[in-house]
Amino acid sequence: MSDSPAARLQVLFEGHRLTPTQRRIAHCMVRRAADAPFLSSVELAELAGVSQPSVTRFAVALGFDGYPALRRHLRDVAPAEESGATAANEYQQAVDAEIENLRHLAEVLADPEPVERAGRLLAASRPLPVLGLRAAASQAYGFSYFAAKVHPEVRLLDEGGTMLADRIDAAVRAGASALLCFALPRHPREVVDALAYAQSAGLTVVTVADSAFAPVAAHSDLLLPAAVGTGLAFDTACAPMLLGRVLLEAMCDNLPDAQARLEEFDVRAAARGLFVE
Question: Looking at residue 244, what is its pLDDT?
Fold first, then answer.
């Protein structure tokens, strides 16, 4: 883990049993790491969408006498970084925010061990179920599309309902040992329930989520965070998409015949005239 303000905040929050509201505050502070040491409790409450007393209880849950003590601590261990020039309009600001999310992801990936471990788990699971509902469905589909070119059997789970548990059961019966989940805001309750069910069925759950404090964290054996952008009417997910591609790379590293499968596909695609040159 790097020594950035966001990374130091993440370390501060880890190891504490936080309520969903407190996880929301923690997530907000990580996203606004440069500003966090200088926010009042009222400002932080407004940014996180919670009440001011919730911010006070959050500080106490972390072991401080109150929010002022937490803020003094943050000024010591996570000082603000110099900010760049302000973007001219809201569209540029949204792009700048996504660039910052990617920078934070790069900092997280400075320790490759979690991703490498995830790659081993995903490569070893035959079949490999990939779960993503609602906003995360496109992330799950994109991963599954490419993973199917190198993995013997990928099963996309992008529809909820009563059949979801049945499909998890079928994957377990077929030999699955791990499940990959993409979980993005707003987090459907059905995803949380599905991950709890998958764990109870014996699957190791690897989750790509917007925050280490997301609701799915409690039912994830290995959670890999990648923040989403919230500056536009609909969230943007460049960092989760890139993390999915990084996971694909790590999985390929643990599939000895991955390169041969890709070359075989290229030969077939050329013979069929599948792509326009």
Answer: 97
